[in-house]
Amino acid sequence: MEKDKKLSFKEKLTYWALTGFCGTVSLLPLRLLYIFSDILAWLAHSVVRYRRGVVSRNLAEAFPEKTEEERKCIAKEFYRFLGDYFFETVKLYHMSDRFIDRHLQLEGLEMVNEAVGRGRDVTLYLGHYCNWEWVSSLPLHIRPEAACAQIYHPLNNRGSDKFFYRLRTRFHAHNVPMEDTFRVLLKWKKEKRPSVTGYIADQAPGLNAHLFVDFLNHDTIAYTGPERISRFLKADVFYCHMSRPRRGYYTLRFVPITMDIAATPVFEPSKEYFRLLEENIRQAPQYWLWSHRRWKRTREMFNAHFGDKAEEQLSHL
Fold first, then answer.
1. What's the rounded Cα separation, in Å, for the pair 293 and 297?
2. Separation between Cα atoms, residue 26 and residue 36, nearest integer Å
3. Taking 80 as the threshold, does the pLDDT of residue 5 lie above it?
4. What does pLDDT average to over the chain?
5. How far is the C-alpha of 5 from the C-alpha of 159, rounded, in Å?
6. At 240, phi and psi to the nearest 5?
7. Among candidates 125, 135, 256, 258, which has minimal Cα distance to 202?
8. CB neighbours of 24 closer than 8 A, spacing ≥ 6?
């Protein structure tokens, strides 16, 4: 966020409102917040019908083998989780180190710290799966010589952006705007400071992409920026496999994708990420963000955009 520009009165009002609401609500115990979550889920699903059409269409296209009743069940569980995600994220405002340490268990962290100890940069691939916001607590567990970062899109309302910047840096992670990613990581590289950087890479990129993958029964345009940066840094690459053993508790397991990216064929890390993410989603589909329009850009749109140069665009990273 640009801290050198003053916020407008409207943006300040947004910041104060979010701070007041979240600062108060986050003091409540999680078990009480889940009661509010159930109410919010019912309102979103049955009253407001928040993106019901998008959710239904996404589930029908991703799981044609499931019955309509099974997909409705997943949708209801998704809205329940969406309420949980909202209040769990609000809870971050006053969350203690001890609390997050109890509620987010890490497996395979020694591989990441070993890479940092060897002076290696690390790329972490995540999805909009389980509570990705809680992953911002990783600096509590990573070796202190590393710079831990998460790449994000700044919000248009700078009051909201300032608030979420504060929330996501609670545990001393660096929030790096997407357009500044290369500059910041290059700076740390020159300083010989290893980086551990998280990318939520299941977003819908623009048409200026280089890869399509088979993902959840769709021909899916893929975001390959993390692979391009990983190759420049010669980073070790991991997938963050998340699961939710019970309400309010998560497990994050680090799955190696490649420890020698220079010897790994182009696009393989990106393809493996989407394969692992789909496997993760199929294990418990209610925890993925079905309300976002992931497949709004198609290969037909891509081909129309590039014309005769479409194949050339897909031939390199």
1. 9
2. 12
3. no
4. 96
5. 11
6. -95, 100
7. 125
8. none
Phi-psi domain of 125 (left: phi exceeds 0; alpha: psi -120 through 50; beta: other): beta
| The CA-based dihedral angle spanning residues 259, 265, 266, 269, taken in that order and rounded to the nearest 10 degrees | -40
Residue 3 has pLDDT above 90, yes or no: no
Strands (E), the chain: 104-107, 122-126, 147-152, 174-177, 195-200, 212-215, 218-221, 236-246, 249-258
What's residue 205's pLDDT? 92
Pairing verdict, β 122-126 and 195-200: parallel
Say yes or no to pLDDT of 189 above 90: yes
Phi-psi region of 290 (alpha: psi -120 to 50; beta: other; left: phi over 0): alpha
Angstrom distance (rounded) from CA 115 to CA 254: 13
Cβ-contact 93, 163 below 8 angstroms = no
- Percent pLDDT > 70 in the chain is 98
- Rounded distance, CA 263 to CA 224, Å? 17
CB-CB contact of 198 with 186 (8 Å) = no
Residue 238: count other Cβ atoms within 10 Å of its Cβ. Answer: 26
Query: Which residue matches tokens 């393989």?
Result: 268
The widest CA-to-CA distance across the chain, in whole angstroms, is 58
Q: Both tokens of residue 189?
A: 């590289």
Structure tokens at 125: 């691939």
Contact 165, 141 (CB under 8 A): no
- Which residue is listed with tokens 């940092």? 116
CB atoms within 10 A of CB 29: 8
Characterize 246-260 residue by residue with b for buried, 16 or more Cβ atoms within 10 angstroms of its Cβ, and e for exposed.
eebebebbbbebbee
7-63, pLDDT tens digit by residue?
999 999 999 999 999 999 999 999 999 999 999 999 999 999 999 999 999 999 999
Which DSSP category does 136 fall into?
G
